[in-house]
Design brief:
This protein has 345 residues and is of the alpha+beta class. The chain has two domains: 3-232, P-loop containing nucleotide triphosphate hydrolases (Rossmann fold), CATH 3.40.50; 238-341, OB fold (Dihydrolipoamide Acetyltransferase, E2P) (Beta Barrel), CATH 2.40.50. Helices cover 25% and strands 34% of the residues. The protein has helices at 42-50, 72-75, 92-101, 107-120, 136-148, 166-183, 194-200, 218-223, 228-233, and strands spanning 3-13, 16-27, 31-35, 57-62, 65-66, 78-80, 154-158, 186-191, 203-208, 211-216, 238-245, 248-251, 254-256, 265-270, 276-278, 285-294, 299-305, 308-314, 327-331, 338-341. The strands form four sheets. It has a six-stranded mixed beta sheet, sandwiched between helices. Helix 3 runs parallel beside helix 5 and helix 4 crosses helix 5. The two termini are 34 Å apart. Bound molecules: adenosine-5'-triphosphate. Adenosine-5'-triphosphate (ATP) binds at residues 13, 16, 18, 36, 38-44, 192. The site of adenosine-5'-triphosphate has 12 residues, from strand 2 and helix 1.
Length: 345
């Protein structure tokens, strides 16, 4: 098979299993984000793929060739880390050419490749500039260009955009994705930002405590999270304990008609945009409005239904007619609910 394959990879640091029995297949040309909270093992996994850390057990291969015994510098992967690690005493062109220079490539080839890469990252003609004179976004692009200099089989990035402000970060997400599609290069990005992962990847891998919780396309993961952890980590989720009541589910404050549960007690997840705020008579769940937050493009309403906090998101056009302190009705369509059986959420 062509692409990256991890087979039962574990990394222990003393008693801590930073990565715990992870198997993963990344087909050639795919953009994958490793997503998870701090300390879940994302960086350790990336470092093992890069060859900067040896697995305690398990195998890594690329295009069917085992990698475990290949040192980092022989893997020829492109890497960009949060710190960027550009050489401050070298010019932009010298920074980008560096990987070619240490491989002994002729200077004419170095110069033409640097020119080509600077065009690719939309910074043509700045070979002679000092890297210390560049803006954050420009430095980012130079680091990306340098990582791509050797036309790597695999492009690995660890929180590459985290030092940028929100607007530049979004612009760079689009650029990075476009670049990856243009080159068709297999790319793995570590991030703890779920919006970033949603907007860039073909596949998201959500990790927690060293293990993979789910791997799926962003939209599939959003609509069908495998468990409550994923539901809560990827976007916002209402996580509600529910009890079976014939064809309906009983939830704090009322019921969800037509949601039949296989177990007497389950946990359900509902996205805030699927919770409709209506009048007390029209909803099937009664709740009290606790807080309304106007976000510009949407309105977020926090409600209390018999001790459970519900969050609803509406568009400004569909702004519900309610105020803080009002008792309202909530309507949740059964088909918008993802059910986690008891003990599995
Ligand atoms: N060199 C090391 N020695 C000992 N423990 C380590 C080492 N590197 C990582 N760990 C531990 O392994 C676990 C996973 O760390 P890792 O850096 O991979 O997580 P992460 O998901 O990338 O976190 P962050 O988003 O904060 O960078 C943590 O508990 C961390 O303390």
């Amino acid at each position: 098979m062509s692409g990256l394959e991890l087979n039962r990879i574990t990394k222990r640091f003393g008693a801590v299993a930073a990565v715990d029995d992870v198997s993963l297949t990344v087909p050639q040309g795919t953009f994958v984000c490793l997503l998870g909270p701090s300390g879940c093992g994302k960086t350790t996994l990336l470092r093992m793929i890069a060859g900067l850390e040896d697995p305690t057990s398990g195998e890594i291969s690329i295009d069917g060739e085992p990698l475990n015994d290949t040192p980092a510098h022989k893997r020829d992967f492109g890497m960009v880390f949060q710190s960027l690690a550009l050489f401050p005493h070298l010019s932009v062109g010298e920074n980008i050419a560096y990987p070619l220079r240490i491989r002994g490539r002729p200077s004419s080839e170095q110069a033409s490749r640097v020119k080509e890469l600077l065009e690719l990252v939309h910074l043509p003609g700045i070979e002679k500039r000092a890297v210390t004179q560049l803006s954050g976004g420009q430095r980012q692009r130079v680091a990306i260009a340098r990582a791509l200099a050797v036309s790597p089989k695999l492009f690995l990035l660890d929180e590459p955009l985290s030092a940028l402000d929100a607007k530049l970060r979004e612009a760079m997400q689009v650029e990075l994705r476009q670049l990856q599609q243009q080159l068709g290069i297999t790319t793995i990005v570590v991030t703890h930002d779920q919006r970033e992962a949603m907007s860039m990847s073909d596949q998201i891998v959500v990790m927690s405590e060293g293990r993979i919780q789910q791997m799926a396309r962003p939209i599939d993961m959003y609509r069908n999270p495998a468990n409550a952890f994923v539901a809560d980590f990827l976007g916002q989720a209402n996580l509600i304990d529910a009890r079976a009541d014939g064809p309906d589910a009983l939830v704090p404050g009322g019921r969800i008609p037509g949601l039949s549960l296989a177990c007497p007690g389950s946990r359900i997840s509902v996205r805030p945009e699927d919770v409709v705020v209506t009048t007390a008579e029209n909803g099937s769940i009664r709740a009290r409005v606790g807080f309304i937050r106007d976000m510009g493009a949407s309105i977020e309403i926090h409600l209390d239904g018999e001790g459970v906090r519900y969050v609803a998101i509406a568009s400004p056009q569909a702004r519900p007619d309610c105020r803080v302190g009002d008792t309202v009705g909530l309507s949740i369509p059964a088909e918008a609910c993802v059910v986690f059986e008891s003990g599995k959420g």
